[in-house]
Amino acid sequence: MLKNQMKAYQYGLCAVALWSTVATAFKISLAYFEPVQLLLVAAITSTLTLGSIVAIQGKLPLLLSYLRARPFYYLALGVLNPFLYYLLLFKAYDLLPAQQAQTLSY
Questions:
Q1: pLDDT tens digits for range 5-53
Q2: Alpha helices of 1-106 — where are they, by DSSP H?
Q3: What is the pTM of this model?
Q4: Which candidate, 106, 79, 91, 81, places its Cα nearest to that of 26?
Q5: CB atoms within 10 A of CB 23
Q6: How many beta carbons lie within 10 A of that of residue 14, not counting itself?
Q7: Distance (Å, rounded) from C-alpha 72 to C-alpha 44?
Q8: Tell me, what's the pLDDT at 58?
């Protein structure tokens, strides 16, 4: 039980450390990109990464069958989150100090 508790603490500390650097990373990125450009880069990167993982696992046909069965449902989900959420979030980071935008995001 003690080993699991230590592992839980380690994961918790890692999550806090990563979350606390998000505001700085977004502000630095927004110095080089507009919010829409940053969203496009993030969407392409995540799509390629997750697509590669699905392909390596051999589940690409399954994913394609889901997309063919309900394309508008998945498109609507993708428009709501992450597209609209992150578009607003990146614009907030662009306009506000990083500490305020991170607090609002939380």
A1: 999 999 999 988 888 788 888 888 888 999 999 888 988 998 899 999 9
A2: 2-30, 35-56, 60-69, 71-78, 85-95, 98-105
A3: 0.71
A4: 91
A5: 20
A6: 10
A7: 20
A8: 95
d(CA 35, CA 91): 6
Q: How far apart are CA 78 and CA 84, in angstroms?
A: 9
Residue type, 78: G
Burial state string for 38-74 with b = 16 or more CB within 10 A and e = fewer than 16: bbeeeeeeeeeeeeeeeeeeeeeeeeeeeeeeeeeee
* Token pair recorded at residue 83: 């597209």
Q: At how many degrees (to 10) do helices 35-56 and 60-69 cross?
A: 120
Residue 37 DSSP one-character state: H
30 contacts 82 by C-beta, under 8 angstroms: no
Rounded CA gap, 12 and 32, in Å? 31
CA distance 30 to 33: 5
